[in-house]
Structure formats: structure tokens, C-alpha cells
Amino acid sequence: MLQKVMWRIGAYSMLASTCLAGQMAWAAGTEPGQVAALEAQVAQLQKTAQANADRSAVENLFSRYMYLHNAFQDNQIVDLWAKKGTPDIRAQYSNLGVYTNWDSIISYHRDRPSPIGKLLFHYVTTPIIEVAGDGQTAKGLWIVNGLESGLTDPEHAKNMPDWMFEKDMVDGKKVWMHNVYLKYGIDFIKQDGQWKIWHFHCFEVARAPYGMGWIPFAAAAQDDPFNFDLMYMGDDGKPVFMPKPDGPASVLNNTYRTDTAQKLEARPPEPYRTFSETFAY
């Protein structure tokens, strides 16, 4: 047994010596230009590998956001955002306006309830993601589909529009069940080696109460302030409205209307070197 072990050690040592000798011979016979070309090729492969890793990290970040949002765990979403004091941080959820203060942005997530009988289920598809050439920012655009639903106490429903609810009631409460169709445009920034949300824009494309459909809904709700201001339905279906925005919206959601045509909004990201060369969501 000892002889076999010694033989293997000798064989491995001989193999290592042979490989080392081969490498030395290769290096000695290689022109400087060939070495430089190989070094450049390795550097490019490393850059490509890092860009692919960054793209995966960005996609996972937004998917994590959506899993948490669907489970009413928005408090955990706070850590996905860029840190307080980050220049040019912003969020837009409707045409009501844009939020540019970290505290007003985070108020959208902070202390959201998990109402009994409420269900959110948004799922993300068709990502287009571009990582900047300098590796410091990234842009992503997603199509999002899903449903939003819950139960509302009749007292809360008294001051809400009829299009919000189905005809039938459950457990003495009004029922709301909506299909939703959205796009999310997000800019990401790398901070301390981690990707974070920097600019966030939710583009609602259409909404369809289960018993109505998106065209009759648009005809009924497209000019109703309730439709613009509603942030979410809280405990017992009580409506909670958006806080006052920090400024006007500069890029408007192209939500479906019966009196306008669709256009390319949001814009898909395109390759860019550094953020000053591209647009912001």
C-alpha cells in the first residue's frame, strides 16, 4: 500500500513538473504581442462575466421586490432601495406626480397592512435589462400581469365609485376583483458592491374589474380622481390615498383610454456606457 502511495506522489510530481516546463517553454516562445492580445482577451471575458453577473443580480432584485410586495411585506422592500441621501432618487406610481424625497418614497412601503381577505398576485415577464459599460448603473423594463382583490366594509364603500365592486357580496362585504396590466421601468445603482433601486416608475397600462373588462372600465374611470389617487385598500377595504407628491410627473403613464392611441411608453433600455448617456425612468 505504501509503495502505491509513493508511486502516485511521484507520478503527480512528474506531471506537475512537466506542465510547469511546458508553460515555461510556451512563455519563452510567445511573442510580446501575443501575450498582450491574450491579456486583452482575458480582460474582456472578465468584463463580460461581470456584466452577466450584474444582470442576474438586477433581475433577482426586482423579482424579490415583487415577491415581497405580493406578500404585503413592503417593510422589507425598504432595504432594496438606495440609501438615504442618494442624489436624484425618485419614484412614480401614477400621473399624480413624482416622489424625489427618500422619506416620501419609503412612505409608500412603510407599515402597509396585510388585510384579511385581500390578495395580490403580480408576476413579472419579458425583462429587457442593460448594465452600463462602467458597471455602476443598470436599467430594466418589465411587463407585469396579475390580479388585485379583496373585501370592503359597506361603510367604506359608500364613498367609493360603483365600478370598483362586483355585484355580489361575500360575508356581508363588497367584493372587488381586478385584473391589472402594468409595465415597470427601473434604474438601479450599485452601492457598496450591492445593486439597489434608484429610479422606480410603475406604468399602469390597463385595469379590468372582473365583471366589467378594461374598455368599459376605462370609459367609466379614466377621468375619475379616485382612480388616480388610490394607493391601496387597507384593513376592511378602507381606501388609502397617495401622499402629496414632491413634484409634477415629467413622464406620463400611457394608461389605456378610449379616446387616445397607445405609444411606446415606457421606452425599452438601450446599451449605454455611463448614465449621463441615457434617460431616466
Structural topology:
Layout: H1 2-28, H2 32-70, E1 90-94, E2 97-99, H3 102-106, E3 119-131, E4 137-152, H4 154-157, E5 169-170, E6 173-191, E7 194-209, H5 214-221, H6 225-229, E8 230-233, E9 239-241
Parallel strand pairs: 1-7
Antiparallel strand pairs: 1-2, 3-4, 4-6, 5-6, 6-7, 8-9
Structural notes for this entry:
- This protein has 281 residues and is of the alpha+beta class.
- The protein is built from six helices and nine strands; from the N terminus they run ααββαββαβββααββ.
- Strand 8 and strand 9 form a beta hairpin.
- The N and C termini lie far apart (69 Å).
- 21% of the residues are buried.
- The model is unreliable at 1-27 (pLDDT under 50).
List keywords for this structure.
281 residues; seven-stranded mixed beta sheet; elongated; two-stranded antiparallel sheet; alpha+beta; 6 helices; disordered N terminus
Q: What is the number of helical segments per DSSP (H or I, 4+ residues)?
A: 6
Q: Which structural class do the helices and strands define? A: alpha+beta
- Give the number of DSSP strands: 9
Determine the oligomeric state from the structure: single chain
Main sheet record = 7 strands, mixed
Measured as a percent range, the helix fraction is 25-40%
Mean pLDDT: 89
Rg, nearest Å: 27 Å
Provide a short characterization of the protein structure:
The protein is of the alpha+beta class and 281 residues long. It contains six helices and nine strands; from the N terminus they run ααββαββαβββααββ. The N terminus is likely disordered.
